[in-house]
Q: What sequence folds into this?
């Protein structure tokens, strides 16, 4: 099937395979279609269907609330073309650039599932062939046993690599969560699509790095910090790391954060915000150099960062209320230009 | 002409993003100093109400994807790919009046 797409500034034509979502087909062909979550929740990939027929995919996709009630709008991350289609999107669409990763479909074996705390697990996946991705990107992860795919950020960085590390917070009623909880899935073959996402850090960037991460949003930060550390970013530029969780028992990945700070203690600060627990004396002793604070992570970051935004780029990841709270804080209080705020919204 | 009374001018605070529905036309109203501005309520990108957004006295920012505009001119100051359309306004007898003779739309 052929999709003809007109955007604000350009038009594009690409082929879709049977059952392939329009978003995947376009990205795979190097067309920079708009998206954020790529998995049906954020609504960013909506388009108007001017001609043709599609299978609309996941009927209960939360992103459908962003579609016009009167009709012919679709979510490109869900819809698969049934016939040749003509689509319109509101914003600009550009071809992916030289430096951009062109996403594609990949197969990988789940090598291990390791608990990091009571409900967060680390997944190690070995791909059939190495890929390149940018620090901060994510993959859609699925399996033949369940419908739908979950967006999971890579928590490691190496290029190229056939080894992907993900962290996943298990939640009841999630396809991937339920599948993982059911029994030992080691050795299972996963279906992946990516890399995706534009909240990335690239070697050679010259801004200070502000990371505000909540809950499972730590994974992309670990990838960004691993790359930044390995290229000596913090020998020259500051790093401000804020990680938020509900309680001490919800933390994970702190050893990795401590290691980043320990490598560049002059320039990197590390603060852990606990929203449902007043931190006692214990945790500071366990993790040297970590400041603990009570409250929501974006509020804690807002207080600690006052007056320190010069030459800083902010990276945000976590539950939508945290990301939105951090965006408000950065725009309204910190007056950070949106071009220096990078985020991907998942829910 | 189709000027309509919206609210008492003094009710619009500096850098407010106040939402009004005037006979079915939704707008967002803000103030910079002595001057009031009226824009269509929803963001030209994905129709998020700009009343959910942010105004710092210089720019208006949509909370959804951080599209940002100069609050006086409505021109993009960053990522926004579409400028804001602006309704003509006047203050008469202490009330903000907006000219709805042309209903502004991004479609």
A:
């Amino acid at each position: 099937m052929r999709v003809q797409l007109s955007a604000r500034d350009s038009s594009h034509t690409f082929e879709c395979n049977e059952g392939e979502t329009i978003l995947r087909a376009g990205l795979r062909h190097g067309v920079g279609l708009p998206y954020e979550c790529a998995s049906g929740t954020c609504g960013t990939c909506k388009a108007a269907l001017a001609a043709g027929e599609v299978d609309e995919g996941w009927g209960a996709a939360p992103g459908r609330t962003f579609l016009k009630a009167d009709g012919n709008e679709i979510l490109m991350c869900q819809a698969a073309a049934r016939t040749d289609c003509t689509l319109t999107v509101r914003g600009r669409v550009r071809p992916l650039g030289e430096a951009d990763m062109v996403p594609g479909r990949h197969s990988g074996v789940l090598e291990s599932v390791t608990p990091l705390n009571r409900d967060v697990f680390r997944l190690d996946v070995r791909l059939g062939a190495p890929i390149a991705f940018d620090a901060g990107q994510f993959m859609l992860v699925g399996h033949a046993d369940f419908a739908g795919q979950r967006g999971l950020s890579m928590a490691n960085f190496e290029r190229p690599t056939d080894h992907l590390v993900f962290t996943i917070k298990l939640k009841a009623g999630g396809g991937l969560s339920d599948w993982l909880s059911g029994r030992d899935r080691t050795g299972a073959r996963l279906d992946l699509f990516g890399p995706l996402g534009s909240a990335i850090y690239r070697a050679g960037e010259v801004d200070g790095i502000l990371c505000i991460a909540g809950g499972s949003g730590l994974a992309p930060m670990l990838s960004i910090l691993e790359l930044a550390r390995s290229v000596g970013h913090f020998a020259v530029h500051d790093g401000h790391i804020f990680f938020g969780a509900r309680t001490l028992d919800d933390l994970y990945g702190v050893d990795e954060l401590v290691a980043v700070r320990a490598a560049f203690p002059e320039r990197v600060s590390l603060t852990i915000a606990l929203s449902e627990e007043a931190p006692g004396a214990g945790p500071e002793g366990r993790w040297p150099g970590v400041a603990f604070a009570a409250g929501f992570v974006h509020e804690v970051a807002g207080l600690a960062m006052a007056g320190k935004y010069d030459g800083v780029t902010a990276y945000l990841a976590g539950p939508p209320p945290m990301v939105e709270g951090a965006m408000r804080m950065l725009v309204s209080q910190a007056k950070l230009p949106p071009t220096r705020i990078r985020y991907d919204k998942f829910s | 002409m189709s000027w309509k009374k919206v609210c008492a001018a003094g009710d619009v605070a500096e850098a407010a993003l106040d939402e009004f529905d005037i006979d079915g036309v939704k707008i967002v109203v803000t103030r910079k100093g002595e001057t009031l501005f009226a824009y269509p309520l929803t963001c030209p990108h994905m129709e998020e109400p700009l009343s959910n957004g942010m105004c710092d006295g210089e720019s208006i920012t949509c909370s959804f994807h951080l599209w940002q505009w100069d609050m006086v001119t409505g021109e993009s100051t960053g990522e926004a790919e579409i400028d804001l359309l602006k309704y003509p306004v006047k203050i008469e007898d202490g009330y903000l009046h907006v000219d709805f003779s042309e209903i502004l739309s991004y479609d």
